Amino acid sequence: MDTKDRQIIRELQKNGRLTNLELAERxxxxxxxxxxxLRSLEKTGVIxxxxxxxxxxxxxxxxxxxxxxxxxxxxxxxxRIFERKIGEIDAILDCFLTTGDADYMLRVLVxxxxxxxxxxxxxxxxxxxxxxxxxxFAYGVVKNTPVYPAMQG
Length: 153
Hints:
Blueprint: H1 3-14, H2 20-26, H3 31-43, H4 56-59, E1 63-71, H5 76-87, E2 92-97, E3 104-110, H6 113-124, E4 130-138
Antiparallel strand pairs: 1-3, 1-4, 2-3
């Protein structure tokens, strides 16, 4: 992947509905080479798909909670079960394996505190092998961007 490919990706992250002509103009390519590069990025899986960015408040899930989860055991089976179950829970948008006191960091979206309590009681507490759960509520957003940083080279 070169600088031009990254430019194409960044422009599409800013606006995934650009026409090939608009995209080509923004990255200073003619339309045919731009389209070839785009198709190559899609074919190789660098571009994995296209989606709509939706306002979470308007959608009805204004509350973002970052949840640190530590497991009791770290056996292959315990980790496999936990990770599979996490993948089945709609309220969890992201799950990251982390270093430090917690094993995982989850980003959870819910409608309100009551919904979060219900999520913890019915979804998280139902998962086997959890040692601890630590929740941090976001009360504002300073920056949220889908655009990856520009790279040199």
